[in-house]
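Support request, please re-run this one:
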Amino acid sequence: MNTSTSAGHALWVLAHPERDSLNAALRDAGVAALRSQGWQVTESDLYAMGWEPTLVRPGGADVAAEQAKLLVADLVVLQFPLWWYGQPAILKGWIDRVFESGFGYDVVDPQTGRVRKYGDGLLTGKRALAVVTAGDRPGSLQPRGISGSIEDVLWPLLHGTFWYTGMLPLHPELITKARDLDVGQFTALRDRLVDRLAGVQSEVPIGYLPLDDDHYDHAVQLHDHIAPGEQGIAAHRDVRVPEPCLR
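Re-run finished. Output below.
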């Protein structure tokens, strides 16, 4: 993997209730690695913050503070355990409240009057990485696994949140058999994450197609000549973008 010595601002959001968890240990290692490379890192530990996940009314000082963190970040890391094939409720609530109208969606381009989304938005150009722990075996979250590939499982986050708001979604960093790791296995996973973060700025993101007239019609469906014969999630991938070698 290529590495880069330049640095920027990073926001690391953790959604795990236990301070002595595997997730917390990986977060600590990841944040320390970024800082050692010259990154300025801001953390949002949602459970430690007592984050209110329920959207009752828009806005609030806590929402504005998280939005400010996002706006200055070049890299956004969302870290969480995979619970029932999705994010913990506290993280889903963070997205629900922070990515509100005028920030995450309903962002209008004043030049064209068009709503900016799917490859364009207020957060365009930022890189977004999901660091995910799962209890099942590695094969279960592969393309032929019983759960489907981790990219398909996380489609609502990768495509529906990251890509929708203009962020460049990176391939998820998946840690499987999270409840059964010994010290040696944890060390290897920690080192793998640290090594990946060293090259995160030059890593090839997931190639999703942008929402434009070249690819989608006015019903927001792919034109017939785009990915002919493909159905579902795979049809929305840009085949010109190579798959990275992360391991």
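Strands lie at 9-14, 40-45, 75-81, 127-133, 168-169, 173-175. The chain has one domain: 9-208.
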